Amino acid sequence: MIVEQKKINHTWGQETVWADTSDYRGSFMSIEQGQTVFDSSKISRKETIYVIYGTLVVEISDSQHEVKKGQSFHLHEGIERILYAPYDDVDLVVVSD
After folding, report:
1. Which of 4, 26, 74, 96 could bond 47 through an S-S bridge, CB–CB 3.0 to 4.6 Å?
2. pLDDT at 41 (0 to 100)
3. pLDDT tens for residues 44-79?
4. What is the pLDDT at residue 34?
5. Beta strands, E only, the chain
6. How many of the other CB atoms lie within 10 Å of CB of 88?
7. Number of other residues whose CB lies within 10 A of the CB of residue 86
8. Which CATH number fits domain 6-96: 3.40.50.2300, 2.60.120.10, 3.90.1200.10, 2.40.50.140?
């Protein structure tokens, strides 16, 4: 079965939702250089992020993590975090439960 994709334009870039079920969600995200995503919000699901291109900075509490092309980062539910692209455009795959 072909799944209809949902494209969403955001102030920080674009998101394409390629899977959205009651069990999981998958999307591609393109974050423009200098932009911030999910500013200080709490995620209600567990998420794993895979960086296709660029370097993503993930800020959790007092720590920052650089996630580079080819690396993955897991975020637990209920934590506050900030994702941003300070160096260049960033392309990601995000899968959540």
Report:
1. 96
2. 57
3. 788 999 999 999 999 988 899 999 999 999 998 888
4. 97
5. 6-10, 13-20, 25-31, 36-42, 47-53, 55-60, 63-68, 72-75, 80-84, 90-96
6. 12
7. 14
8. 2.60.120.10
Residue 88 reports pLDDT greater than 90: yes
Summarised one tens digit per residue, pLDDT across range 31-42 is 999 999 875 556
Asked if residues 14 and 30 have their Cβ atoms less than 8 Å apart, the reply is yes
The domain segmentation of the chain, as residue ranges, is 6-96
Distance of alpha carbon 48 from alpha carbon 75, whole angstroms: 6
Mean pLDDT, the chain, integer: 92
Phi first, then psi, for residue 80 (nearest 5°) are -85, 140
**CA 75 to CA 47: how far, in whole Å?**
5
